[in-house]
Design goal:
The complex is a heterodimer of chains A (461) and B (196). Chain A has 461 residues and is mainly beta. Helices cover 12% and strands 46% of the residues of chain A. Chain B has 2 domains: 126 residues, Sandwich (Immunoglobulin-like); 41 residues. Classes of the chains: A mainly beta (461), B alpha+beta (196).
Chain lengths: 461, 196
């Protein structure tokens, strides 16, 4: 009995010894600024130093040995060091010395540019890498900022401008084509120098704005002068790209710094430009109007976005009157901050007049609609619209039916139901749906959330 | 904290003044990113007086930048997409996902392509690009110890466990011996009581 007890205790201790390993911690030996000092909100450089002892890491039996130490510095929210401030609020410079052994000292300046009143930390992230593994520690040096609201970030003095192409480029479908693209960073006011320009790019299809398109059938080959930000390239249009209206979107990011370098006056900006081009069917390259509706079944009471596109094709058309005569099951919804033009009429039928003496280009009109409450699930509602040009009237083509959803019809919507939909949306996006389970994409989920919130708020929907 | 962060993002949005959209979404990245560094990318929504019930933000991550994961967002590693959903009263709460910078400095600055959409509107995410600038290159520690064979690490661990086990056995032996003596004493006392 006693031997059994002894063996059990020994095993417990052995297990405990194996589990009791604690990750070593770097130690902040000294730091400045000390004592959580208060600075004003005026732009200023705040010098700092942090002396760190990390011998416990080097000598640790588990992770120590021949590894590499690295670090980075940023300004974060006090107590939430991973919540760093934006680059236009504060940036950090740093240098380091590695002596004596097992210690290093980081020093530099925090450039407080637009920090508002609040508690912040100079955050030093220490990274230890060994044999492909990595460990991170955060050290915080707190400080406070107090004072009047900082000045707004100055307006940019550079802006990307499309030099080429001039307007829409149009190509027949089924043939490979290309056209030159040139974008400059135009300086709109003197006194600043462009620094670190960069871009991201993507291709979108005007008729299917929610659908992502691969770059492969229409790739942009480009080079960029990283000092002037000038982009020169070729937009390729492969024979396989289907007929449609496309935008090559190029999102610029850049910094502007004064002629006399001053870290306190370096700010980050971004702006997107779009290069439009069309691939047309030569047998049908004339004016047409078509509608795009979200690819979802509509929940009654929840607004959805409808778009009408006016495509002149190769015709020169100075004016179009587009009319939507909504059926009884649908209600018009005024969009807030609609980037496209509003209808001329305030009641059904809704009418838009688009005109341009030189000839209209591809044009989008947006408006909101919602299915009236009480419309039975499964009802298929048909839209009918007309587009008139001088001498002829066409039906608005494209999407023309809305099917009423059978889910999320009633209030209250149990939280579990909402969470189930969010889970399904999540798994749809991760490609983790169960066999036979219906997909739920973004607009479908946003509709359900709108219904859920309306139910909670007791709003008539 | 949320108010402060909202202010942070409001400022970032001012920086992108050319985007005067009704709702704005700003991305925050650290001002300096080191090679192989793990860091959070934050996304903040400024409603600017609008009242959408939900918003979905889609971020496309450039090649070479590893997606570590997210507690707030959905990650599709194959498509290099991070999708974040915000809704209800917490629609302006900051959402985060975690990336790791490339091990070698890319030839050019990388940029995340971000878009947001509500039921009836859409726009681009403004804010930071992924710049590896002013970086701290990981350096060999001051005087790196000699290469430590992997076996030596295990030896140290096993030696520690062995010593702990020996100490324990010794402790138990002492306890047992003392316990026997005490028991003996008790028995004597009991006997004494009986006798008394």
């Amino acid at each position: 009995m006693r031997i059994k007890l002894l063996a059990l205790l020994s095993a417990t201790v052995i297990l405990f010894s194996a589990c009791a390993y604690a990750l070593p911690e770097p130690v902040l030996v000294s730091a400045t600024p000390a004592g959580n000092p208060v600075y004003t909100t005026a732009p200023q450089a705040i010098p700092y130093t942090a002396a760190v002892e990390y011998g416990s890491i080097i000598n640790d039996p588990e992770i120590g040995g021949n590894g590499t130490i690295g670090y980075s510095v940023w300004v974060g929210q006090a107590g939430s060091p991973q919540n760093f401030v934006s680059q236009n609020e504060a940036t950090a410079t740093f240098r380091q010395s590695n002596a004596p052994e097992g210690t290093f000292t980081i020093s530099g300046n925090i450039f407080s540019k637009r920090l508002r009143t609040g508690n912040y930390s100079i955050v030093v992230q220490i990274t230890w890498q060994k044999q492909g593994e990595e460990w991170n520690w955060l050290i915080e040096i707190p400080f406070r900022v107090s004072g009047p609201e900082p000045a707004p970030v100055p307006a940019p003095r550079f802006n990307p401008v499309v030099i080429l192409p001039l307007g829409w480029q149009r190509f027949p479908a089924g043939a490979a084509n290309q056209f030159p693209v040139e974008i400059e960073m135009a300086q709109t006011a003197p006194g600043k120098i462009l620094k670190y320009p960069s871009i991201s790019k993507k291709l979108t299809n005007a008729e299917n704005p929610d659908m992502g398109i691969s770059d492969i059938p229409a790739w942009l080959a480009y080079g960029m002068d990283w000092t002037t930000g000038k982009l020169t390239g070729t937009q390729n249009v492969s024979a396989g790209l289907p007929a449609g209206n496309y935008y090559r979107k190029i999102h610029y990011y850049w910094r502007e710094m004064p002629v006399v370098p001053n870290e306190l006056e370096i700010f980050l900006y971004d702006y997107e430009v779009a290069v439009p081009f069309a691939v047309y069917n030569p047998q049908d390259d004339h004016f047409k109007a078509f509608r795009a509706l979200p690819d979802i079944n509509a929940i009654p009471g929840v607004p959805i976005l409808a778009r009408i596109f006016l495509d002149p094709g190769s015709d020169t058309i100075s004016g179009v009157v587009a009319t939507e005569d909504l059926p009884a099951e649908l209600e018009y919804v005024e969009l807030e901050n609609n980037p496209t033009q509003k209808p001329e009429s305030a009641a059904n039928p809704y009418v838009w007049l688009v005109k341009n003496a030189k000839g209209i280009t591809f044009k989008e009109i947006r408006y909101g609609i919602k299915v009236r409450e009480g419309t039975p699930a499964g009802t298929v509602i048909t839209l009918s619209g007309k587009a008139e040009i001088l001498g002829s009237t066409l039906d608005i083509g494209g999407d023309n039916t809305i099917t009423v959803s059978g889910i999320a019809q009633e209030c209250p919507m149990p939280n579990q139901v909402l969470l189930g939909h969010i889970d399904r949306w999540s798994r749809t996006n991760r490609g983790r749906l169960a066999m036979g389970e219906a997909e739920l994409w973004d607009m479908g989920l946003l509709q359900i959330i709108e219904k859920w919130r309306n139910c909670i708020r007791g709003l008539p929907t | 904290m949320n108010r402060l962060l909202a202010a942070v993002f409001a400022l970032a949005v001012i920086s992108a003044a050319a985007y005067a959209e009704e709702i704005s979404v700003a991305r925050g990245v650290p001002s300096a990113i080191a090679l192989s560094q793990q860091f959070d990318v934050s996304l903040g929504v400024a409603l600017n007086g609008n009242d959408p019930s939900g918003i979905i933000i889609t971020e496309e991550i450039p090649e070479g930048w590893e997606i570590i994961g997210s507690d707030d967002c959905v990650v599709n590693e194959e498509q290099r997409i991070v999708k974040c959903l915000a809704y209800g009263e917490n629609i302006t709460a900051v959402m985060k996902y975690r990336l790791r910078a490339p091990a070698q400095k890319p030839a050019e600055t990388a940029a995340i392509t971000g878009t947001w959409k509500t039921l009836t509107s859409e726009g681009n995410v403004g804010g930071g690009a992924l710049d590896i600038i002013g970086q701290a290159q990981p350096e060999e520690n001051g005087q790196p110890p000699a290469e430590t064979p992997a076996g030596e690490d295990n030896f140290l661990l096993l030696a520690g466990i062995g010593i702990a086990a020996i100490l324990l056995v010794a402790l138990i032996a002492i306890v047992l011996v003392l316990g026997r003596r005490k028991k003996k004493g008790k028995r004597n006392k009991k006997q004494g009581t009986t006798e008394g």
